[in-house]
Task: structure prediction
Amino acid sequence: MEINFCNLCGATSEQSIPEGDDKPRAVCTQCGHIQYQNPKIVNACIIEHDGKILLGKRTIAPRIGCWNVPAGFMENGEATRTGAIREVKEEVLADLKNVTLFGVYNIVQRNQVHVYFRGELAHPHFGAGAETSDAQLFAPEDIPWDELAFPVGITALKRYIKEMESGDFSIQEQDIVIDYEMLKKFDV
Amino acid sequence: MEINFCNLCGATSEQSIPEGDDKPRAVCTQCGHIQYQNPKIVNACIIEHDGKILLGKRTIAPRIGCWNVPAGFMENGEATRTGAIREVKEEVLADLKNVTLFGVYNIVQRNQVHVYFRGELAHPHFGAGAETSDAQLFAPEDIPWDELAFPVGITALKRYIKEMESGDFSIQEQDIVIDYEMLKKFDV
Result:
């Protein structure tokens, strides 16, 4: 994000290295306020019901019309787990049970950390909610891999489906590297 | 953080609920730019060497003079794991090997998520680095619990020590609730 002006006093901010620091920050030329920029957290949940996976179809950019694991930016005042549960409720109108940690995915190129959970439908009710035009349960063999929205969701889902065969789920921390050349094909 | 002025154009920002949103945000009264505020990530690493744990003594507020698991705010351009490795290098001048995920700790009252790793010293060299006056290896029975800086570090270390007895480490996601009444005793 561009930082031209100070949040506190409205004067001009400039990039400089504060005393005792080793990285350039947005420092106010008047009041000296330092505005730090840090990675953001996205919470997500892979939802299973009767051996199938619940996905939502996106109505917002990027990747409009693609299927996705329900996910969204974490808000202040919530935990990673409650953030994932909220996103699921908003996007695919579903209530969850047995929600546990599944993975931590670093997307360094986007300054994002995606915290993935896995859970089950608390009851078999769901539908298209906010930013979503459709919600469907997919058997593992029917997942539309070519129409999935993001590399992180594909990576997490592939591991989930591999592990659900044995029922022996792991928790992994992994880097997701975005192939910008490949993305050009999708016009994002 | 207080947001009185817009980062982009310097005009006044006001709290209002943007269209399609359900939460108040800092919205610029002139250009309409919305500045979101989201939780920050702290990366940490519990370091083991010859059955002992490496801790650093803090020279910065809060909790000056207390012992802590090396930890710090994640920077843009790094992964959670590399952030933890960087903090360890900065604070206790140590290089690590076998670094793996240990826990995700939500501190909702602080709008923070602490991502804990565990690792081993790559070689037996360490010392007091940035923001640190001392670095020492502690046998589990010698850890100065009453002089540890933060509840999240205490919670993570207690589980680590319990699990190191069996060698069977788990990865957990957990909420840390800060007892502000208790903290008053420490004058933080």
Observations:
- The interface with chain A takes residues 1-13, 23, 35-41, 73-81, 100-101, 104, 106, 108, 111, 113, 115, 117, 171-173, 175 of chain B (CB under 8 Å).
- The mean pLDDT of chain B is 95.
